[in-house]
Amino acid sequence: MNNIHRHVVWALGLGVALSLAGGITGQPLGVTATAKAEEAKKKKHPGKRLYMRRTCIACHGRNGARAIQDYPNLAGQDKKYLINQTLDIISGKRKASPDAQGKPRTEAMVGALISPQGEVRITKEEVEKIADWLSQLPPAKPNPPKDLKPEDIEAGKKLYKKKRCQTCHGKRGDKPLKAYPYIAGQKYAYIINQMKDIRDKVRTNGKVKVMFNFVKKLKDEEIAQIAAWLSTIDRTAK
Ligand code: HEC
Ligand code: HEC
User: Fold this and answer.
1) What is the Å distance from ligand 1's center to 34 Cα?
2) Measured in angstroms, how far is the CA atom of residue 9 from the centroid of ligand 1?
3) Which end of the chain is more exposed for a tag (fewer CB within 10 A), N or C?
4) CA distances from 40 to 44, 159, 215 (A)
């Protein structure tokens, strides 16, 4: 078994453990009949089946949220954005800096979707179906690290405004321009990784160049503060 496969198997195990944990703690009582109907409808979505069959679930969690802290939440993300990024990661257009093991952070996903012989295990149409399903899911509840300092969260909120991030991502990271990403409630570590990769011109695919001037002078500490604030925003509370 190569590393990537081991990783997927491990992540799948975690996914199962998480679903079991979810079964024990249970859903909050009082889920309305309409909400249940909505859920049922989503279950039949072909994108959901593909999401499981193409192993996305192993790393991105049962409902596009929360399996592993460094990995992005996908639930409720913009559809076009999801399609573009998935295809760019698979094709290698979107690059990433190395993780703690020294491997580019996009490598495991590429390894899961392209065979060692170079055969791509997913079609564009399948990616579109998965993105359609994911974009309809309710966004994840925020899950920031417990040890964030209130003063950093506050500083991040101010910096976000000062650096005019709202021009493209909305006042609280929850109203992006068309086909741009939602960033409110995204995972802390993931936001930091992406902001650094965009600043350092490691991630240069798609429309990301338009953001460069807004982040090029940010220090690591400031990036962490902005991420602290964004990771605490609840996109489900409207
Ligand atoms: C082996 C783990 C793994 C698998 C399997 C996997 N991903 Fe990923 N995915 C990642 C990681 C890690 C990242 C973040 C990369 C980075 O930090 O730059 C990512 C990033 C993404 C992003 C970018 C999100 C954003 O906000 O920009 C999308 C979209 C995505 N994955 C979709 C998918 C889909 C769809 C599938 C299944 C077809 C899938 N992934 C399978 C690990 C995985
Ligand atoms: C001029 C528009 C613009 C501004 C201003 C801007 N961004 Fe972005 N941002 C983008 C675009 C476009 C992307 C990615 C689009 C793509 O690849 O197609 C992006 C991507 C991101 C991502 C990665 C999202 C993900 O899911 O991977 C984060 C995090 C982010 N921006 C945060 C910020 C912060 C914080 C600021 C302020 C310091 C900011 N942006 C300012 C346009 C902008």
Assistant:
1) 31
2) 16
3) C
4) 7, 41, 42
